[in-house]
Specification:
The chain is an alpha/beta fold. The chain is built from 18 helices and 13 strands. Helix 6 crosses helix 7. Bound molecules: iron/sulfur cluster (SF4).
């Protein structure tokens, strides 16, 4: 049995309650095992490396456990990169990495070393590693609510996966299949949902999030979840994701009446040619018009768009941006622009290295308000070039896509409101363009942001 253990927790988004971590801390407190929790960069601004070094310099424990807020693979990837770059601060101890979606990272040379990988949650790993720490069942919501609030998560967001993944297969989608993450026993699933909703009520959560990629895919499931929400935590605002085709007038009213504050839906692109090529199988523009017409006033609509689709022409990209700009002007409508290329597994094989994209995507690993130092920036470039998994940073962009992205960056740089709908672009500006430009010129790539951009 170790004399003391350290738990290091990385989160990109500190608004979401990490229930597994909360539960682990409650166990450790109850079992009297000496432990210390480290949350690098939490609430800090400035250099990410400096914040991590300062936080971890005092880690004295015999065993170190690392966990992440891991809502999807994309965040897990970002978290793993953070781990790689904080390893030097952790000495020669074994570092147990607890990451349920581990299968993605097995055998990645850049991520081996002293790390002991566990494809499990922190609570499971602790239960197995520490003799005498027996997991009974979940703590009462009251006990966990106390720990949650002490960890600084009062009035934050709680989330649950309630139903299996989406039955569709859009080529760009990284979240359609959550089948492996979900408890197959309906009774246990319901018990968990009740538990999380009680925790939400006790911690006065600002919002409850159904993370299901397609909440309305099986309507009866969705209405059952909302019945439970109404009986356990009435009045709690919630968010969910749904396909446009499922958001008919009746469904929108029903969601709003149950307390839905925001639905997230994918429009993807104004060009039907491009949407069809992704296998989306939705007449998105017609559907969008219907959803906008029936949108309840008290419910926001978050709409996802894509840039960088293979074959996307500059005029198509401009038309897409034009629609986004129009939507931005509507009350309660929030368009977001993401990168297809980040998740396009099937086009990775023909990859070439494009520092422009790499610089954009690196910004995702940095918590809000922080920036990467030159050393980390170069380390990340090196990692993604060496490791096949990270080839998504170097997806097969054709000339058009590079042009499109440059055009978008120019537009985003010049328009603060527009940059709100692309968090990555916003963060890139935070990452100090002069640094990005310096690295890119060392790599022989053209600079892409002008100084006046920030
Ligand atoms: S409909 Fe949505 S969740 Fe389903 S595969 Fe397409 S993008 Fe993914």
């Amino acid at each position: 049995m170790p004399r003391e253990i350290a738990v290091i927790f990385f989160a990109q988004d500190d608004r979401v309650v990490p229930v597994d971590l909360v539960e682990a801390i409650a166990w450790l407190e109850q079992s009297g095992i000496r432990h210390k929790l480290y949350m690098p960069a939490r609430g800090k601004r400035g250099s990410w490396r400096q914040a991590v070094a300062e936080t971890l310099s005092g880690v004295q424990a015999d065993e170190v456990f690392v966990c992440f807020l891991n809502e999807n693979h994309y965040l897990a990837t970002a978290s793993l990169l953070q781990l790689v770059f904080c390893a030097e601060f952790l000495g020669d101890r074994d570092i147990h990495v607890c990451l349920p979606a581990l299968s993605l990272f097995r055998g990645r040379p850049a991520l081996r070393g002293r790390f002991v990988w566990h494809a499990k949650k922190l609570t499971q790993v602790l239960g197995e590693r520490l003799d005498g720490l027996k997991k009974e069942r979940l703590f009462s919501p009251e006990v966990l609510a106390d720990v949650t609030v002490r960890l600084g998560y009062r009035r934050q967001i709680l989330s649950a996966l309630w139903s299996p993944g989406c039955g569709h297969s859009c080529s760009f989608c990284f979240s359609r299949d959550n089948g492996e993450m979900i408890e197959p026993d309906a009774g246990i699933r319901q018990e968990k949902l009740v538990f999380l909703l009680e925790l939400a009520r006790l911690t006065e959560a600002s919002c409850f999030k159904f993370r299901d990629p397609d909440f309305l895919g099986v309507p009866a499931n969705a209405w059952e979840a909302l019945r439970i929400l109404g009986s356990v935590a009435p009045g709690t605002a919630f968010r969910c994701n749904a396909r446009l085709e499922d958001l008919n007038r009746e469904a929108l009213v029903r969601l709003a009446d149950a307390g839905c504050s925001q639905v997230f839906s994918g429009v993807e692109h104004v060009s039907m040619r491009l949407v069809e090529a992704t296998g989306k199988q939705e007449k998105v523009l017609g559907l969008l018009a219907g959803v906008l017409a029936h949108k309840p006033r008290k419910m926001d609509l978050a709409l996802s768009f894509l840039a960088g689709l293979p074959g996307e022409t500059l005029p198509e990209a401009k038309d897409n941006l034009c629609l986004i700009r129009k939507l931005m002007k509507l009350k309660g409508v929030k368009p977001y622009l993401g990168y297809y290329v980040l998740f396009a597994q099937e086009v990775r094989s023909g990859a070439f290295f494009d520092p422009l994209l790499a610089c954009l995507n690196f910004s995702a690993i940095v918590p809000e308000g922080m920036f990467l130092d030159y050393q980390d920036y170069c380390g990340l470039l090196k990692t993604v070039r060496e490791d096949a998994f990270f080839s998504f940073f170097a997806a097969a962009l054709n000339r058009n896509s590079a042009e499109v992205i440059r055009m978008l960056l120019r537009e985003f740089s010049a328009d603060a409101c527009l940059s709100e709908c692309m968090p990555m672009a916003r963060k890139l500006l935070l990452l100090r363009p002069e640094l990005a430009n310096r690295i890119m010129s060392e790599l022989g790539a053209p600079t892409f942001l002008c100084r006046g951009a920030v």
